[in-house]
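Following up on my earlier thread - several people asked me to post the actual chain instead of describing it. Fair enough. Here it is, all 366 residues.
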Amino acid sequence: MGDLTPRDGIEKITPYKAGESKIAGQDNALKLSANETPLGPSPKAREAFLKAAETMEIYPDGGYGALRGAIARRYGLNPDRIVCGNGSDELFHLLAQAFMGQGDEAIHTEHGFAVYRIATQAAGGTPVEVPETNFTTDVDAILAAVTGRTRMVFIANPNNPTGTYIPIDEVRRLHAGLPSNVLLVLDGAYAEYVTRNDYEAGIELVSGSSNAVMTRTFSKVHGLAALRVGWAYAPENVVDALNRVRGPFNVGGPSQAAAIAAIGDTAHVDASVAHNEKWLARLTEILPGLGIEVLPPVANFVLMRFSGENGKTAQAADSFLKSRGIILRPTASYKLPDCLRMTVGLDEHNERVIAALTDFMEGTGS
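Reply from S.P.:
Thanks for posting it. Predicted structure:
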């Protein structure tokens, strides 16, 4: 055998592990582990996808001009400052590839999205993890961790899997405290769900900045997770760098068509957000009454903490729920071993989870 090996550092990357989607021996399990929208995509997006699939032999628009235009119209942006990707995951990797190298550092929070660490290591950089306060991004902790080697700061706002967020004033304070050669990456995957008055996804901050990027996705509220479409709004110099390193056709034609239709169907988005708001309120009322702590949620999921008393652990709850055909997301890999994350589902799905958790916490059923 030859001596071909990956470059130093690749073997240290822990591969991303998605949430479970099946239960052995059970058909039609209820999957609430991946923060997928229960209302599905806009019917207009389905129609656009099917029509575009009639010409699958044709390469897509490599500059995705129509998609950038649709995003720009929806949010009042300059389309020239938009870059699209194969999900926002690809954009994190492209940003790290373009702006980091061996010995550089990127900061993320202790319960931050796992792909930040992976993208950093894949680019040859060193991930620097900082503590959170009350399971929430701590601006002071991030600023204290900045060194001469820092090149990027990743924060998800709202964060996954905690579901917490920081107000836009805190985001601005973070950005103002960073050196001009450090890029702030604001991951707004769940931005559409947040209805708090002190929240902004970061569009205005990015518009007036040379070292801040906001990323968004069509996987969550728009329901296009299978199609892998994300986008970034960034300064011109960042856009130029990303367009130099990305693949020439990194977003498929049917995916572009579906995304254009989805972002134009604001009524469907509004319905999804209203359904989510209703159930966040109900879950945060009912679950604590069962003895399950719930972190204040603003996205499309709730993070539940189990006390561990009398055997009521997250692991035991996960096993019990699976016996009922229900899949939630354990979060031990995010240093939250006493928690499970539940995606907001349809009415009947949420009622089913509540009933199962009631039986588990009360020690009834099997």
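The longest strand covers residues 336-343. That should answer part of your original question.
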